[in-house]
Amino acid sequence: MIDELRMAELLCTRLCHDLTGPIGAVNNGAEFLSEEGFNLQGQAVELITSSAFSAVTRLQFYRAAYGKMKDHGEANLSEKQKLAADFFSDTKVKLDWPDSHTEAAGVSISLKMTRLMYNLMIIAAGALIRGGSVGVRIGHAEGGKKKITVIAEGPGLKWDAEMDKILAGGLTAADLNPKNVQMYLTKRFVDEIDATLTCRMDGEKMVMDLVQ
Question: Which long-range contacts (CB under 8 A, 24 or more apart) does 172-181 make?
Answer without folding.
Answer: 172/2, 173/1, 173/2, 173/3, 173/6, 176/2, 176/6, 176/7, 176/10, 177/10, 178/10, 178/13, 178/14, 181/7, 181/10, 181/11, 181/14
